[in-house]
Structures are given as C-alpha cells and as structure tokens.
C-alpha cells in the first residue's frame, strides 16, 4: 500500500551541504529578527506608520516560519522562537467577538473566492469550479484540488446561496461551475482506478483537472459522500425552485456515481481525512451514512425508485456500524479503528457538525452536536490540547483553548489549526440552536462532566428554558463557544489571513497560507452563531438495526484445504486478514474438518474480488501450539464461482 509522504522524512531530505548553508542563513536571519523583536517591543504604539512597517517585516519573516520545523539546533531554535513570539504579539489581534466577526466575515469570503478557478485572485491555472486547497506551492505544496476540501467549501457556499445569505448570480454561476468540474473529474482515470473501478476514492487532483499520479494516502472514501451531500443540498433547492431539469440532467448523474461508490465500498478501509491512517474512520463513516440517507430521499423525489431500497439498506448498515466508534469506557468517540492513537481527534467534532440536522434534536445515534455523546466527546477532545500547547497554558480548565487535529500529531510539529478550533465553537453554536428551539436541555450521566464545566453542582435531568439553570448554562456555553473563536482571533494576523495552522508555543501562523478550508470553517461557525440552520437531511427518528450487517458485497465460497499430520488432541485452524477469517484472531480462528485426513478442509464465504492474507495454525486441546511459517499465504477471491485452495502445512 502506498503511504503519504511522512512529514518527518520530508523535512530531513535536504543534502548536508545545502543544509549547512541554509542554517547559517537561518542563523543570521533569526538574530536580525530577534533584535527586531526587542526594538519593536520597546517602540510599540509610537505611530501607526511604524505599526504598519512592523507588520510588513513580520509578515516577511512569517514566510520563513515553516523552516523552523527543519531547525535541529536547540539554541538557534529557541532564539528563533523568542523572536517569533514578538512578531506574534505584533500581529495578533485583541478584539471582541463582534469586531472579529465583522472584519473576518468578508475577509474569509474573499479568501474562499480567491481560491476558486477560473478567476480567483490566488488560483490562476485552476479550471472553472476548481477549489485549490491553498495557493502555497512549496513547504507545503497545496496547489491541488482535494475532493474533501472542495466539497466542504462548496457546501458552505451552497448553504449561503440556498439560505439566502448570498443570492448573487455570480455565486450561482460559481456553484454551477463546481457541478461541471466534478462531472469531468469523476471520469479522470487515476491511481485509485477508473470511474467504475474505484477511481472516485482518489483524494486529490491537479488543478487543471488531470490526475495526480505520485504516491499518496489513497483511497480516501469521504470525498464521494461529501461531494454528494453538497450537490444533494443544491439539488433539493433547485427542485423546490422549479429547476428539476437541471437536476436530472446535470447534477443527479454526478450524485448517483458518488452514491453508488459509497454503497459499494463503505465497508472497506481507506485513509482518514488527515490522509495518514488506513483503517475505518468515524468522519468517513458518518458522512457516508448521511449521503446515502439523503440520496435515498432525493432518488425517491425524482422517481429513481429502483435505487431507493439499496441506498436505504446500506444507510441502515452504516448507521449500525457508526455506533461502534463510541467508547463507553473512555466516554468519547474513537476516531479511527487503526493508527494506535488515543482516538481523540477533530475528526469526530467535524463529523458532528457536518451531521447537524436541527430536526433531529439531540439524537445520539447520529451524534448530533447537542447529543450527550457528542458533548462528552467535545470535552475529551478539547481537554487533550490543554496541557500540550504552551499557548494554552494558564487558561482555566473550563475556558476555550486552541485545538489541533489530534494530540499525537507531528505534521509541521503538531500545531494548532484554525479549522479545528472553529469546529469546536461551531458544535456548541449548533447545540444552542437546538436547545433554544426545543425549549429545554438535558444532562445525562454521559454529558454530566461536560456540563459540570459550567456549573459544578449540576445534576442529571432535563432543564426547561424557563429555568434559571437553562439560562445560566446556555449563557456559559455561548461564552465558551465564543472563546474558541476568540482564540483563533487572537492568532489571526491583522490582515485577517488564515493559514492552516498556528504555532503551539508562539501562535505564529504556519504551514499552508490562505487555506480555503480555514476560511470556510470560520464562515460556517459564524453562520451557526447567527442561528442559520442548514437544510434537514433526514436524521430524525432513525432506527439502528439490532444486528449490524458488516459486509454488503456479494459472497463467493472458498474451500481451504491443507495437508497436515497431527497428533492426538491437535486440530488445524484458519485465520486471516478479513472479517470472514476472523481478522488474524487465533482465539476465534476457524476449525477445519478432518474428514479426509490428512487433508483438513473448510469452506468459507468471502466477499467477491477481495484480496486477503491467511495462514493455518495448530491448536492442541484448544490452545495455540504452532503457526505456519512466514510469509502469509495470499488469495484474491474471484467475482463469481467456487474456488478450492490446496495447501500443504509449512
Ligand atoms: C501528512 C499530513 O499529516 C497529511 O495531513 C498531509 O496531507 C500529508 N502528509 C501530505 O502532506
Ligand atoms: C492536509 C489535511 O490533513 C487534509 O485533510 C486536507 O485535505 C489537505 N491538507 C488539503 O487541505
């Protein structure tokens, strides 16, 4: 399997001779900047001209900040960091929430539009309707279009258009460009396959709509459902506004391909939204569920009845699987099934806000923002960043802090992210919308610790909006949510530009500049704070099947035979890399029959066209005695028909 480039290894790539030159340069630069910092601090507020000058110089200095990650000399590093802190202080904003929203709203909108082709100010070369992730072309090179980022950005724009926030014809044209661009992109053959063999799982493309062919963490299975969600939202609005022809002719064909892909592949592993872990991922599962649920409703609406049963059945299966990410011992959502981390991850907070359906109330089956599980998870996630970032030190345990992707992150040194901190605010704004609408809020044993942050003596129970407890809690939670926005505000340079990350010790922006997703996430958080309610997607009153169907692919029988002599009390077992072979569990391994001794055999139904590894093992009186020697055995099941494998114990 191809892996994404490891951030650490990328950094240490430079040949030694180059590195020496660079370091001397860095040394000189950082000393200058250090002095600059001292001077600026002394001369702060002398005049606005000077302030402007300082800003320009500091912005110039920022251009080199990503290099900080490459610096392995501890002394130089700390001088550099000190200087950066001065710059951060010069550039950061001390504003009220209203001031920040006032100024940042338009900056963020301009920022988004600048990154969309064909005429975006910072995206020359991008085809019409193509979102670049960021204009940054090196360290990191983000001048590509990601299916995930693009879908989330357009979901924001489509919501703005359909909810009446921006009804300009230029925005309408822009959204139609997205539809056209995705129609082309879906057909581009790429390293994940063709349109019909898995190519829709390709995470990113060149901005001229050609395939990106270098190695990467692929496939990523959240792209197709996210794109479907955006386009279904648009399609529903178009139908309600008498443009069904455009929907059936142009939008639906794109949606259908994404839904078919999702219905077929949801149960296979893929890389998570951070492109690092290949396993099953909460965010991916959540958006797959939502897309098929909404897709079934749209299919019904436009008379595509034959598809409805299939989409709905898979949506039920996914909803069932979705529940398995909840850790009742940890009281939070474990974001990935693989990866060996705590599982506390912005993945789950993003999943919750992108699953928001005000009509579903505080439903925990779909992890609605105000559900007890999502609130408990919010606390676990935010708390994971309190002690690991210096910029969070000294902040009370019930006040907002900067957050990042996940606490174990090392990408660019594992810094704070604007979009994750904004998401922490947005979840709470969403929750407030629902509590107000339903006129009460509920504290359960699951969410008790979350609510105790705001009232240390609160007990479980339901509090009506007429009670003072409701008033106190909602006011405190609103202030808490605003706190996350204000943390981002504090580390937003005064020109309002939002990069991908800001430094965990200094607050200095770093990694990709002008990240489109940073701007979009800021705008969606602001919209939720204002009480904007995105269209419902059908999350209300869903029933979780009592038995999860884990694999929806058709099955084919495979007969495993192995010639093996055994002693009395000994039997031969089989295990392997797929569910049907018990995922390498020696305990659950399948016992073979000895009817044709010394040939042992078993027939197992496995999913069609699936690659897997397997091995035989011996157990003496139920206890594992020996495994076969390496390497693992390998088989790919056929698309149909019986297979018989004839092995000899080794
Ligand atoms: C690793 C990062 O964590 C991931 O998010 C990024 O997309 C890839 N490297 C490529 O830069
Ligand atoms: C890295 C992030 O981890 C990933 O989620 C994103 O899609 C790309 N950068 C592009 O913004």
UniProtKB/TrEMBL annotation:
Gene3D superfamilies: 1.50.10.10, Immunoglobulins (2.60.40.10). GO terms for biological process: polysaccharide catabolic process. GO terms for cellular component: fungal-type vacuole. It is an enzyme of class 3 (hydrolase). Residues 550-650 form the CBM20 domain. It catalyses: Hydrolysis of terminal (1->4)-linked alpha-D-glucose residues successively from non-reducing ends of the chains with release of beta-D-glucose. The keyword Signal applies. The keyword S-adenosyl-L-methionine does not apply. One of its GO terms (molecular function) is starch binding. Pfam families: CBM_20 (PF00686), Glyco_hydro_15 (PF00723). The active site is at 272 (proton acceptor), 275 (proton donor). Keywords: Carbohydrate metabolism, Glycoprotein, Glycosidase, Hydrolase, Membrane, Polysaccharide degradation, Signal, Transmembrane, Transmembrane helix. The chain crosses the membrane at residues 21-40. Its EC number is 3.2.1.3. It comes from the Eukaryota. Belongs to the glycosyl hydrolase 15 family. This is Glucoamylase. It comes from Crucibulum laeve.
